[in-house]
Design a protein that fits this description.
Number of helices: 2
Radius of gyration: 12 Å
Distance between the termini: 27 Å
Number of strands: 5
Order of helices and strands: EEEHEEH
Number of domains: 1
Strand order of the largest sheet: 2-3-1-5-4
CATH superfamily: YggU-like
Helix content: 25-40%
Largest sheet: 5 strands, mixed
CATH architecture: 2-Layer Sandwich
Strand content: 25-35%
Shape: globular
């Protein structure tokens, strides 16, 4: 599944949220030398319980808006996002 992600680097804490079809991920890493991209892949891997090697940034390596390919179906992704958001509340 390809997901459009808006990355907000240099945040105080890591967080995942959804606004319509756009997923926003806040990361603590700075956008230097690919560190934010590495943290993005690591964080998505932890949250979605997918191997890091299976997550690919398809487009937007140097942009805040990225297209990420994750081997997960849409229903499972939506369920995990709802669970994550409900844990924060």
């Amino acid at each position: 599944m390809k997901i459009e992600i808006k990355v907000i680097p240099n945040a105080r804490k890591r967080m995942l949220s959804r606004d319509g079809s756009l997923v926003t991920v806040r990361l603590t890493a700075q956008p230097l030398e690919g560190k934010a991209n590495e943290e993005l892949v690591r964080y998505l891997s932890e949250v979605l319980k997918v191997k890091r090697s299976a997550i690919k940034i398809v487009r937007g390596e140097k942009d805040r808006r990225k297209i990420v390919d994750i081997p997960i179906d849409e229903e499972e992704f939506d369920a995990l996002l709802c669970e994550i958001v409900s844990r924060r509340s």
